[in-house]
Structures are given as C-alpha cells and as structure tokens.
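Hi everyone, sorry if this is the wrong subforum. Our group has a chain we'd like a structural model of before ordering constructs, and none of us has done structure prediction before. Sequence below.
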Amino acid sequence: MKIKTLLLAGAAFAATTTAQAIVATPTLSGPYLFSITTFCQAVVNPWPNGTTTLIQGDYVVDTGIGKFDASTNTFSFSGTNIVGSVIAPNTNGGQLKTTKSKITDQPYSNTATTITLGTEQSQVVYGSVKAGIAQQFDTFSTSTQNSTPAPTAPNCISHVTASHI
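Answer:
Right subforum, don't worry. Here is the predicted structure as tokens:
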C-alpha cells in the first residue's frame, strides 16, 4: 500500500513540475547565435498556355549575432544576408546575393508559445533554460512574399535557430 501511495505521489509531483516547466516563459537576454532560413515557394500557373511563373520565390539565409536587452525589451541583430531566387519552371534561379544585415533596437516580447520580434510574430519552442534565461530556442512562421503580383495565400516559411553564447 505504501509503495502504491509513493508511486502516485511521485507521478503527481512529476506531472505538476512538468506542467509548470512548460507554462513558464523563459527570459531572452544577452547574445545569441542566430541562423534564420526563409523559403518562399514559387507560384506557377499551368493554364492556359503552358507553365507560367507568376512569382519567382526566394531562398534567404541570415546568420549572425542577435542581442536581447531584457531591461528594455529591445532586440538588435548584426550578420550576413544571402538571398537568391528558387528554381522554378522556365527560370534559371538567378544569382545569390550577399549583403550585411543590421537591425537595431526593435521591440520584442515572448510568451511560452510565441515570440514577436518587431512586428513579426512566430511560434517558439524553447530548449534548455539556465537561471531563467533560454539557452536555445527555435521559431517557425509563415508569411506572404512581398512581390507583384502578391500571392493570395502564405507562400513562405521561416525557421530561426538561436543559441545563447
């Protein structure tokens, strides 16, 4: 009887601490190594006279250092941006272009399930947390490529991986 009570008490404790760990929102503070990948699918129309590429699509990679200031809830980023067109029917995909990227003092907020950087909100999954500060996190979001003509539905997916350094 005592063993059964101990097992039930242990299971209840484990369930409670697990639920608390999932609900708690970690702090984002200090520098993080960022890798940001965005893929925008090309939009093609096979009608009426063969395949026509309406929107070329993009492949974008940003890498660099992002810094979170928890006292002001601001975020800055400095790194490298590589962008190119995806290969679509009747196209050659274009050339890759590399530029420096810099974002300064943008507001940020985060919850247990979302993060907003500037005006862009994403789903977030946190890795380990040390002293209340997230040591890793990944974000996922969809968006609509800024092009003419504009897609009628989201055609881009972005994934961010960040590790505290």
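For your construct planning: Helices lie at 2-23. The domain at 26-164 is CATH 2.40.128 (Lipocalin).
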